[in-house]
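RESIDUES AND SHAPES:
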Amino acid sequence: MKNVPISWEKVPILGSTSSDIAEEGVLFPIKKPCLVTRIVSVLMKIGTAALWALGCFFLYLTVSACTSREAQISPVHRDQLTYSPAQDAIRYKEQVFTNGFTETSRYQGPPSKELDRAWWALYTHMTRIPPEDAAQLENTTVPIPGDPDGYYGVIFDVFHSLHCLDELRKHLWPDHYKSFAERYHVSQEVADMHMDHCVDAIRQSLMCHADVSTITFNHGGPNDDETDLHISGGHVHTCRDWEAIEEYVAAHEFVTPMRPKRVEDIILGGEWVDSE
């Protein structure tokens, strides 16, 4: 067996009654660690430091990635967590809602060609986006068949919701419009499922965007009773600028065999889709 190097250390004995021992102390032997032990100790210290450094590095990468993602999102659309090709077109403005009773919009009233044309123009938009935009989508899409640049097709959810709302509008006028089943050549069961789908799609969209603009009250009624509350009109909302979104989709719209003309050509040309 190899001799382990020994050194001596003087350790005072506390509480000793001998003044000589208390002052001088007692020598205890201390074994010096061997070379292998010292190497292992050094390697463990290096490993611990390396793990700390690696952890700090990954933390830096995570923070940098989050910061970079936020930096790419303009303050105008910072509420848009999921990527949209149209997010740079998002603008906000204040808008007063019509109450639908004493103040009506162009989208209200009994059926007419003008009313159908106005509704049709609201939602017949399909958007053409480049591959680099398609690669950033949360859900994958497919290329447009025959597109010369290999662009991809999407439709923004708001247009789907408006399509559903228009179908429900037509459902209110059964004496004027053919039924959904007749117009789309499906069974009544499928038509009912589609109407149910539309109601819930609109519900999800409303709850998703959750407009928290306030609806206020006033005292009203035939006797102007101050103990009764009635909803007032002229409420101001914070809205996304619809015209800005329309400008984007008009610049990126594509046509299909189902819609052989661009929407602006249909409207400006005086044509409309006969829903009767």
Remarks:
- Strands lie at 6-11, 26-31, 92-96, 127-129, 152-154, 217-220, 225-231, 236-240.
- Residues 67-75, 266-276 have pLDDT under 50 and may be disordered.
